[in-house]
UniProtKB/TrEMBL annotation:
Belongs to the 'phage' integrase family. CDD domains: INT_ICEBs1_C_like (cd01189). Keywords: DNA integration, DNA recombination, DNA-binding. GO terms for biological process: DNA integration; DNA recombination. Site-specific tyrosine recombinase, which acts by catalyzing the cutting and rejoining of the recombining DNA molecules. GO terms for molecular function: DNA binding. Residues 48-152 form the Core-binding (CB) domain. It comes from Ruminococcus difficilis. This is Site-specific integrase. Residues 186-401 form the Tyr recombinase domain.
Length: 405
């Protein structure tokens, strides 16, 4: 693709019928020489029209320069100028990671104005055949859709290539990968009763000298009994906990993000303490006996004062999420438990409360989805039921006895 440019400043001439005409020659985006004609009753009128056209042409030319950049240069600039100031740091890190790892390797060197719907569809299909998760490929689609929509709305490109690209439906996507499209509730990972006992046994195990193998093991059991997110647990201060009234106040979160100088990514990562995921995330969580026991255990292990983190590192600072996760995975491996994410503790908490527990008389004690949503800090109970609860139909055995029709 060539760059459009004015070839002449325009020349006015008078026709035999007394009218004035003018011509401006220019080169279009395909490199072809073309002309724009003008007419008027006076020479001044024609010159004014030509001058206005040249000014507008050059303004359009400046806008179209963006379409001549490579996708990597243009998309990275768009991310830094428009995305970075508008989203959370973790959200921006994910968007930039998607661009660098899933988009640039395939399309990064291609000129923006030359990218077609077929190019984008080929990109999406490539990652699908590489067995990437549906959510990852959809993030690629969403990011490109937002970027190209901006270019089209700003008239930087004359046609939006995303207009003819639809994200494959999840069922078809999974089928193409030879996988079953399970409902969200079936893909939720939770700890079984046996796994919880195995996890606890390993987490609190000790060496021959009596020293514990794992730091802050009680933190994971605390999460299991409160439904805390990892960032929320690491953001707790001792002052957030009221043992007398058996409640904890969730007020902040810890996140690990890429180090940056301005918007430019630098080597390494850093921990930031800031606001919670959403407005409803700021909440009070009641503490059961086990949760209280775990809080006391954590304070016995490390305590640097009321204003210090409940789960500190050895220097009394905030524990890095990456270290907290690695320790969790080590416990799982040593206990012989199938790998699960830290979020599985939160899923298990929600599942247990909604499915309920049976007493010795066969009665089921449970909470409503709305109550559990409030404990988890969810905006709606639909989120809780769809993405956090693995239904246990075994709990329903015998429940219809006496309801014969």
């Amino acid at each position: 693709m060539s760059q459009r440019e004015i070839l002449t400043n325009g020349s006015a001439f008078k026709r035999t019928d007394g009218r004035w005409c003018g011509v401006v020659w220019y080169k279009d985006e395909h490199g072809e020489r073309k002309r724009k004609s003008f007419s008027g009753t006076t020479k001044a009128e024609v010159n004014k029209k030509m001058k206005k056209y040249i000014v507008e042409f050059n303004e359009d030319k400046n806008d179209s320069v963006e379409s001549l950049k490579t996708l990597e240069d243009s998309l990275q600039n768009w991310l830094q100028v428009f995305k970075f100031p508008a989203v959370e740091r973790t959200t921006y890190d994910r968007a930039e990671s998607i661009a660098k790892n899933q988009i640039y390797p395939q399309l990064g060197k291609k000129v923006v104005g030359d990218i077609t719907a077929a190019d984008i569809k080929k990109l999406l299909n490539y990652w699908m055949t590489e067995d990437y998760a549906y959510t990852t490929v959809k993030k690629v689609y969403t990011l490109l859709n937002e970027y190209f929509r901006y270019l089209y709305q700003q008239e930087i490109i004359t046609k939006n290539p995303m207009a003819n690209v639809e994200m494959l439906k999840k069922a078809n996507f999974m089928s193409a990968q030879g996988k079953e499209n399970l409902p969200p509730t079936e893909t939720i990972t939770v700890f079984s009763e046996e796994e919880i006992e195995k996890f606890k046994a390993e987490a609190f195990s000790v060496f021959g000298n009596g020293k514990r193998k794992y730091q802050q093991a009680a933190a994971y059991i605390l999460m299991l009994n409160t439904g805390l997110r990892t960032g929320e647990a690491l953001g707790l201060l001792n002052t957030d906990i009221d043992l007398d009234n058996r409640v904890m106040h969730v007020q902040r979160g810890v996140k690990e993000v890429s180090k940056r100088e301005g918007v430019t990514e630098k080597s390494g990562r850093e921990v930031i303490v800031g606001k919670l995921k959403s407005a409803t995330s700021k909440r009070d969580i009641p503490l059961n006996d086990t949760a209280i026991e775990m809080i006391k255990d954590l304070r016995k292990e490390f305590y640097f004062g009321e204003d210090s983190p409940l789960i500190p590192d050895e220097h009394g600072e905030v524990t890095r999420p990456v270290n907290f996760r690695k320790r969790f995975y080590r416990i799982l491996t040593a206990a012989g438990i199938e790998t699960k994410g830290l979020h599985s503790l939160r899923h298990t908490f929600a599942t247990r409360l909604i499915n309920g527990v049976k007493d010795k008389n066969g009665n089921i004690k449970s909470l409503t989805p709305k109550q559990v949503a409030d404990l988890l800090g969810h905006t709606t109970s639909e989120i809780t039921e769809l993405y956090y609860v693995k239904r246990d139909t075994n709990m329903l055995n015998g429940i219809t006895d006496g309801f014969e029709l």
